[in-house]
């Protein structure tokens, strides 16, 4: 199968060489691989590094293209790639990721077995590995700190609603069209919703694994969560069917904090104080339980004293995400 592997990048000079080297070392026949690189008007050396890779490896693959995405956003970048790729299927890979050498071959094998769309697990990893970043990773990898999405966890070989690094046969996008360019961060939710509506199934195979680098600091992570929450609110107005209930849990939590706080200030009803106390008690107990589970489930080298801050990290991540949704809904 002639497969087109696509990477969209914006200001990824610290990561782009790594993912390109991963692609170069894939065990799939390189003459059956097209590499589509899309630079989203980067202001650093990302495009220069992509061009350098193309110059040095032009004959290594069946074809390498370097394209420009002047609109910058990710869905616009994917549409640039969809208009240009030549393969029988397209495989999406994030620039902020790393893939094992059998990543392409395992995706192709699943497509050849009869699936139209497929993908696998996407655990998160850290780039530098400081003690504090290990703790951030524990928070991100916890179901309580991120989500219950299939690509974050492992439901076994099954069909799912969405995937992260996905492979798609050409007929899929021929039928449903491209990405919604109005959705900057939830484009995958919307495109997978349309894919399912069009009658295609999304196959999940836990044997297919890729890895995503988390944000390197707490401020960057909180900014990302806030933006994710913000786009959930915007997507609610565009395509409510592509969202799940868990997307709104942080929003519900933030609303519970605001409403209960206001009621406690302006009323003197004992039941309000009791319900508020029960809410906070339940949340704190759950946060402590999930923190213990995260530490126990981690390898020994990832366990540091800073892990005692996991309940606080969970709270900050939930509030940041929830405030983003709140801002978007009422904006």
TrEMBL record:
Which residue windows are transmembrane per the record?
245-266, 278-298, 304-324
Q: Which Pfam families match?
A: Glycos_transf_2
The superkingdom of the source organism is Bacteria
**GO MF:** glycosyltransferase activity
The answer on whether this UniProt entry bears the keyword Ribonucleoprotein reads no
Domain Glycosyltransferase 2-like positions: 4-176
Keywords in alphabetical order: Glycosyltransferase, Membrane, Transferase, Transmembrane, Transmembrane helix
Q: Which Gene3D superfamilies match?
A: Spore Coat Polysaccharide Biosynthesis Protein SpsA, Chain A
PANTHER family per the UniProt record, alphabetical: POLY-BETA-1,6-N-ACETYL-D-GLUCOSAMINE SYNTHASE
The similarity comment for this entry is: Belongs to the glycosyltransferase 2 family.
Q: What is this protein called?
A: Glycosyltransferase, catalytic subunit of cellulose synthase and poly-beta-1,6-N-acetylglucosamine synthase
Native organism is Lachnospira multipara
